[in-house]
Write a structure and sequence with these properties.
Elements (H helix, E strand, L loop, with lengths): L1 H18 L15 H13 L16 H15 L4 H12 L14 H27 L11 H14 L8
Helix pairs in contact: 2-3
């Protein structure tokens, strides 16, 4: 019975995932009749940051400013601008912050190089730690047991073991 209930629950969850339609921020009145232009507009909208939500693209955001930016992108594309011209226009107007993936330059180099530098430094620290540990297998302040201490430890361990009928 439990297996049947578990199977039913799994099928119910799978069906609800298939049936549930994702919420799209792009309104039907924003969609361009030309499929190629609409595809370009959606691609550009995924690259632009919503200035209100800040961690969402304007394609995903429901904010009024994101709607205005989506409409602006579509207007520029209908006017014949290339994708790069649209991005340049919005970057000139709002700064590089509007780009979800900022361009590589002297002013954004830290954004691109910092993750690699942190990984490199972390890797070097791990290698250094491992080499140091391999050279000194005994921790600082720890001394090996003397023969007398080993004998006493063995006696204490033997004393703590329960006796079995076969050992007598």
């Amino acid at each position: 019975m439990r297996a049947a209930a578990r199977t039913f629950l799994g099928l119910l969850v799978a069906a609800s995932c298939l049936i549930a339609s994702p919420a799209f921020a792009v309104q039907p009145d924003e969609i361009l009749p030309d499929k190629a232009l609409e595809t370009r507009a959606r691609d550009l909208s995924r690259e632009l940051r919503c200035m209100v939500c800040q961690n969402q693209s304007i394609d995903d955001s429901d904010a009024p400013l994101a709607r205005d930016l989506r409409l602006l992108v579509r207007e520029r594309l209908k006017a014949g601008d290339s994708d790069q011209q649209v991005l340049d226009f919005l970057t000139d107007r709002y700064g590089q912050f509007v780009l979800l993936r900022p361009r590589f330059g002297w002013d954004t180099a830290i954004l691109w190089l910092a993750p690699a530098a942190v990984l490199l430094l972390g890797g070097l620290a791990l290698v250094s730690f491992k080499r140091r540990r391999d050279r000194n297998p005994i921790a600082v302040g720890e001394k090996p047991l003397t023969d007398a201490e080993r004998t006493r430890l063995a006696a204490l361990l033997e004393q703590g073991r329960p006796s079995t009928p076969n050992s007598q």
